[in-house]
Design goal:
Length: 594
């Protein structure tokens, strides 16, 4: 006990009746009943109801106190009157009869209320984040985050991993997102970079002879904000293992995720062993490499149907002749859906920038027919072939998209989510994890039309080293993998390339000379030249894990002090201008005209 409190605000119960206690906390709210004033006092742990009579000399002090003022209260624990208990509170059967009250810190008028969970504009919430974090829901989210990180650390130690810290000031990386640069005062004209991830350092830890590494690592990337990604900085569970294959990494991560999600959620796990889905298959069946497997809708390719003479839908047939594809989503037993359901999906697709989604429903009258705007263009034989390809039945409906491969994948991936939501097909009480595997080592950049790394340039290609065909790099697959849950990518990972000669060849494919590799990746390539173990790892995002466990769709709801969409900290007013003397010391001049 100290002078501020003998107990916290969730600690007292019927066993404490008759005790004289001292509590300190924030004035959550008051209720004035004329001769009685009820005060809800709140601290980190909970809420205790306190009551004071109007004849008490401290009554005027409490009556005038504004919400969120900090109070110290002393009094006797008494039993609440019958019928006034609040069983939602741990302290709901008792209250404090106030004998003494003191205002430790008064509050101004609040820009946002703490009592209640009503929505407020994000800019106000971020500017007054310290108030926003006092709200029950936000407070609970941040407590969950702390507990999740503590649990992860404990589990990783049980799995034989040790935690090491990697540098924050490092060299700029030529790959990935934009770096945050830090000027060096002692080395004028040169810059450090904040790490986008501890990628090279964690590999160097393996080369240094340590076997299993992990770290709750801060990462910094100068990229645009999204609902599932914070601008500027984020945290990840970074891990790496020596002398492992892909499945060894999977076993560790699956065990951790199952234990973690069972510990902090009552939702069911759809799979105890996470499915392995090849990248190519995922793009074909779901239109994305981040599939939500709770969604039962599957995409099928029916391009060849439009090469038939008994299909008269000339718009699609002409596009197919020009090299476009046709894919479709089947919705089961939707023949009784109103016309508005189908038209709304088509209208939605046009709002997304697509030309729309054609549709028809399969019916059986005297024969198999298609009902809908384009149904008349299909013969019975062509419909039976479509039904065979798509595993469709009488009463099912099909939504069709035609265009370039990447365009069709994008609109049908989004359409899967839209239609499943409209039909209420997704069980929100489940977690569906999966691995996306067999990523291509290289791909064609849409803007430059040049070959680039598709994922991580330090990954190991699949196949025997002597048989790799560098003349057909786009056919080369890598030991790269993503872990996905409910349509959210939690992490990318890979088995690493630990052979310098192979690394030179792979970088040569994307246009790097040996000298450039030696220059840009000097620490890595030099270390690999002195004996490196086969190794691999992954780095699941802490923010996204907590976001899923807290049932939130925006990552800022589980982050203590996030930036806004423009990468601005409205509370601390960062980024900010710096003084001329600081710039001079760093030998930097600012030219805002270019």
């Amino acid at each position: 006990m100290n002078k501020y409190r003998s107990h916290n605000c969730s600690e007292l119960n019927e066993n404490d009746i008759g005790k004289t206690v001292t509590l300190s906390g924030w004035l959550h709210r008051t209720r004035d009943h004329g001769n009685l004033l009820f005060v809800d006092l709140r601290d980190h742990y909970g809420i205790t109801q306190c009551v004071i009579e109007n004849k008490n000399k401290f009554f005027p002090i409490l009556e005038k106190s504004k919400p969120e003022s900090v109070l110290k209260i002393s009094g006797e624990v008494i039993k609440r009157a019958k019928g006034t208990e609040n069983l939602e509170l741990k302290t709901g059967k008792i209250e404090i009869s106030i004998k003494f009250a003191e205002v430790l810190s008064s509050s101004k008028e609040l820009p946002i209320p703490v009592f209640g969970e009503q929505d407020y504009p994000e800019d106000i919430r971020l500017k007054y984040r310290f108030l926003d974090l006092r709200r029950a829901e936000m407070h609970k989210n941040i407590l969950l985050r702390s507990e999740v990180i503590s649990f992860i650390r404990s589990e990783m130690l049980k799995l034989g991993f040790l935690e090491y810290q990697t540098p924050i000031l490092t060299s700029s990386s030529p790959e990935g997102a934009r770096d945050f640069l830090v000027p060096s005062r002692l080395n004028p004209g040169k810059f450090y970079a904040l790490p986008q991830a501890p990628q090279q350092f964690k590999q160097l830890i393996m080369v240094s002879g340590f076997d299993k590494y992990f770290q709750i690592a801060p990462c910094f990337r100068d990229e645009d904000a999204r609902s599932d990604r914070s601008p500027g900085e984020f945290y990840q569970l970074d891990l790496e293992m020596s002398f492992v294959e892909q499945e060894d990494v999977f076993k560790v991560v699956e065990k951790l995720m199952i234990n973690l999600f069972k510990k902090f959620s009552s939702k069911k796990m759809m799979f105890e062993k996470f499915p392995r889905i090849p990248f190519k298959e995922s793009m074909e069946k779901y239109g994305t490499d981040k599939p939500d497997l709770r969604n039962p809708l599957i995409i099928n390719d029916i391009t060849k149907i439009f090469e038939r003479d008994d299909v008269k839908f000339d718009i699609f047939k002409n596009l197919v002749k020009k090299g476009n594809i046709v894919r479709t989503i089947v919705t089961k037993n939707t023949k009784n859906q109103p016309r508005s359901f189908f038209d709304n999906v088509d209208k939605w697709a046009k709002e997304q920038g697509a030309s729309g989604l054609a549709y028809f429903t399969i019916l059986k009258e005297k024969q198999i027919i298609a009902k809908g705007p384009i149904g008349k263009f299909f013969s019975e034989k062509s419909l039976k072939e479509i039904m065979k390809i798509c595993n469709a039945s009488e009463g099912d409906s099909l939504f069709l998209a035609c265009g370039k491969k990447n365009e069709v994948e994008k609109i049908l991936s989004n359409a899967r989510e839209k239609i499943a939501k409209d039909l209420d097909l997704i069980d929100n009480e489940q977690y569906a994890f999966c691995w996306i595997v067999d990523y291509p080592m290289f791909e064609i950049d849409d803007k430059t039309n040049k070959i680039v790394f598709s994922h991580n340039p330090f990954s190991m290609p699949q196949g025997e080293l002597g048989t790799l065909n560098f003349n057909k790099p786009l056919e080369m697959k890598a030991y790269q993998y993503d872990i996905v849950c409910n349509g959210v990518e939690l992490s990318s990972g890979a088995i690493r390339n630990h052979i310098p000669e192979l690394m030179y060849k792979l970088f040569e494919v994307v246009g790097y000379t040996k000298e450039e590799v030696d220059n840009k990746f000097s620490g890595m390539i030099n270390a690999l030249s002195y004996g490196a173990p086969p190794h691999g790892g992954i780095a699941p995002g802490i923010d996204r894990i907590v976001m899923l466990l807290a049932n939130k769709s925006n990552i800022r709801e589980v982050t203590l002090f996030p930036m806004n969409q423009n990468a601005q900290d409205l509370m601390m007013q960062a980024p900010s201008e710096i003084s001329t003397s600081q710039l001079k010391e760093l030998k930097i001049k600012i030219d805002l005209e270019n």
